[in-house]
Specification:
- By secondary structure, the protein is of the alpha/beta class.
- Helices cover about 45% and strands about 10% of the residues.
- Helix 3 links the parallel strand 1 and strand 2.
- Helix 1 crosses helix 2, helix 2 runs parallel beside helix 15 and helix 5 packs across helix 16.
């Protein structure tokens, strides 16, 4: 991509995105992408693009695209001096956890996440105090401080396997309420959501072999409903509906397939259905449609993650120019968070979010 001209970038984007992005926008984005690709070579930088990036960015500047953890693993092996993570902050933090010697940049100053913002390290400490000795599993969609309080991390694709690997009567699973409910269903466990103050876990908790959950949700995936699925099926009876495990258990049950971003992409690639609909961040649906023009993807999703939407080509260019929005993780926190991530990688070597 580094040697491509503005015109060649434009032609490549036009081929992939002519049904997705207006032509005038493609021309403008191509000029910005050219400057970024030139600058990343001069700065000895690598650009990582999450599956939820808007299409013009996704198909123009990343050296690697994919899910957050796989991109962080790629970052840990790069010889480049600078890592530009086109994704939200917890993703860039995970890259820094695995690559402490690198300069990690995030294009937007905040680019948060409702899940990462939905729990604090103090919350985890209080849960550990209330349930002493119970192992803590945290979703990778969390801050470095929360990971540091955890025993092991997980992704949406390996959460069930991670929980099973612990061989524990009781597991604390944080912070996604719906992912926890889906994991509880798949592992045949009861789930509870205890208050942090007062009360006692009681004998029922121990007898039920529960998952102890937390009530944070993804602000995108929580919006999908069973009624949405029913309405789509009325108009398109032959559609195959794919839902992310951050959707509610009812939505997952009513869908034809549930999996992580990588698993959904693979499912579309490896199957043949009359048409598909993804219940996830809508830019990913556009990106899959561009990569699989022979597949009929319904463009009925209108839910865009406001945090992912903060990552733009314009801001990526500024981040590289000014080395701005540098992501730092204090070493004491990084080391402890690294252990939780590394333990997952040792148990589940192939991980995807």
């Amino acid at each position: 991509m580094n040697t491509m001209s503005v015109e060649s970038i434009y032609q490549d984007l036009k081929t992939k995105l002519h049904d997705v992005v207006p032509d005038v926008e493609l021309r403008l984005k191509s000029e910005i992408a050219f400057e970024i690709n030139k600058l990343k070579k001069e700065r000895n930088a690598v650009i990582l693009g999450h599956n939820y990036m808007e299409p013009a960015l996704f198909y123009s500047i990343p050296d690697y695209v994919g899910d957050s953890l796989e991109l962080s693993r790629i970052a840990s092996k790069t010889e480049k001096d600078i890592i530009v993570f086109c994704g939200v902050r917890f993703m860039a933090e995970t890259a820094k956890i695995l690559s402490p010697q690198k300069t990690v940049l995030i294009p937007a100053k905040k680019a948060g996440c409702s899940l990462a913002d939905g729990i604090t390290a103090e919350d985890v400490r209080q849960l550990k105090s209330k349930f002493p000795g119970v192992p803590v599993v945290t979703y990778v969609n969390t801050t470095a401080e929360v990971k540091a309080e955890s025993d092991i991390c997980c992704t949406s694709s390996n959460a069930v396997a991670v929980v099973k690997s612990l061989k524990s009567e009781t597991v604390i699973f944080l912070p996604d309420e719906y992912l926890a409910r889906n994991v509880a269903h798949e592992t045949g466990r009861h789930i509870i959501f205890p208050a942090l103050t007062g009360g006692d876990p009681g004998n029922e908790t121990l007898l039920d072999k529960p998952i102890i959950g937390w009530k944070a949700r993804c602000e995108v995936h929580e919006k999908f409903t069973v009624e949405d699925i029913q309405n789509v099926h009325k108009q398109f009876p032959d559609v195959v509906i794919l839902a992310h495990p951050e959707c509610s258990p009812e939505v997952v049950a009513a869908s034809d397939y549930s999996g992580s971003t990588t698993q959904m992409i693979r499912h579309v690639q490896q199957t043949n259905a009359p048409r598909y609909l993804l219940l996830t961040e809508c830019s990913m649906g556009d990106n899959i449609m561009a990569a699989n023009p022979e597949k009929n993807m319904l463009r009925l999703c209108s839910i865009r993650c406001p945090h992912m939407n903060e990552i733009t080509l314009e801001d990526t260019l500024e981040a590289l120019r000014k080395t701005q929005h540098v992501v730092e993780v204090p070493e004491e926190i990084r080391v402890r968070a690294y252990r939780a991530v590394e333990r997952m990688l040792q148990i589940i070597p192939s991980a995807a979010d």
